[in-house]
Amino acid sequence: MTSSVNNECLRLTKNWLDNVIIGQNFCPFAKKPRIDKSIRFHVSITNSTETLLMELEQEFNHLDNNPETETTLIIYKNSLRDFDDFLDSLYLANQYLDSLNYSGIYQIASFHPAYKFEGEPDSSISHYTNRSPFPILHIIREDSISSALKSVANPELIPERNISHAHSLGKDFFVQFLK
Predict the structure, then answer these.
(1) Which of 30, 75, 133, 168 might form a disulfide with 12, Cβ 3.0–4.6 angstroms?
(2) What is the distance between the alpha carbons of residues 79 and 74, in angstroms, rounded to a whole number?
């Protein structure tokens, strides 16, 4: 049962990645590692902060020892459903990254089914640019970001473009991938 549930979790996440993040170009840097099969997907079944941090460290170590792996998505299948709890865990994850001396080597991005940008109304479609089927911590190599930014004209305009594009797609487009 666990294997089939994990497979469904992976299928839904990959479908969202392929059709929303890459398919709609919300992240212009995601397509190449997806094509190259250099994205690692880890489905976590943890319910504890201690295990979350241990898994995070394991993924840092995996990236350290596997340079062919470009990035890791840790997908929280059973936990962190509450967005405030997720933000608390993200804060702890970033503190842990710092304590392990990984600042400047990796950074952590985040996606969540109830993602909300601070200062935006609850109804804002902008939230959907960071909404995912499951809570996700995304470990990114800093060098990869620096390199990718060189190939994009006006990268500072990406968020503005994404919000505009999200409006043109409409809420129903996103809802189908977040069921």
Answers:
(1) 133
(2) 12
